[in-house]
Design brief:
- The structure holds 2 protein chains of 2 kinds.
- Chain A is mostly helical.
- Chain A is 72% helix and 0% strand.
- In chain A, 36% of the residues are buried.
- Chain B is an all-alpha fold.
- Chain B has one domain.
- Chain B has 5 helices and no strands.
- Classes of the chains: A mainly alpha, B mainly alpha.
- The interface between A and B is medium-sized, with 40 and 26 residues.
Chain lengths: 193, 100
Amino acid sequence: MRAGDQNDCDELDRKAVEAVLAGDVGAFEALVRRWQGPVTELAHRFCRDRARAEDLAQEAFVKVYRSLAQWRGEGRFSTWLFAVATNVCRSRLRRKALPTVPLEALGEVAGWRLEEGDLEERERARFVRDAVRSLPERYRDAVVLFYFHEMDLRSAAASLGLPEGTVKSHLFRGRKLLEQHLAVLLGGEEEVA
Amino acid sequence: MSSLDRMLTESDAPAPSPGFVSAVMSAVRAFDRGPAPLLFPWAWLGAALAAALLAAVSAIVGRGELLAALPRLDGRVLLALAVLAASGLFSYLTVEWVRD
């Protein structure tokens, strides 16, 4: 998004929030329309399940509505929205985790599929994104948020409510684990620093 | 950008269903129609903490003189009050947990 578009978007968000806080519930719809895609994508990156991602996104929007008065308007509305959505996803996944393949088994599964010769680039990418769910929670969260924010460490840290250094360290370890366990799938081109 | 970065940056998330916005707005309106959230009794908690602090300071500094000056309460009354407070707190937390 260009800087000008971003500023326009921030202004529209701010006006919509003010309208909702003034009692116009319908104004919230504009916020949902504008951010439904990114929030659902964020939830999908956590759970990798379409129906559940929509449930999580809906819950996040309702939570945002409930606590709208807590947004102080100092930063971007989207930064706060993503932080709330991240908290919803993390707490829900903590309560009821989806079944995952153990990280240790991923290399074998990937290796077997690779021998079959049916893994296109897109499928490999999907497999890697699925594998992120098998990471330990703190590494998974850092990886999910870093790539959701298009590799912007500051935004990822803001969404997680953690210092940038901590997120950087979690991200490094998460990537290292992925690279180790998916070496076959990644074709040995990744170097573990 | 490494291939891992590229794969993880790309998104394969499906677009939200057409009814997503209306589902969210229905949930929001249902929330608005629901009962007002219970307020935590911060004032009572504050008063209780202040009293406990006063009693502790009195016991330590004033060697119990202040406590001795307070009217003595029957042990059973204190027990009943404690049970009442605990059950109130438990009910509040249960209702909030169910609402959440």
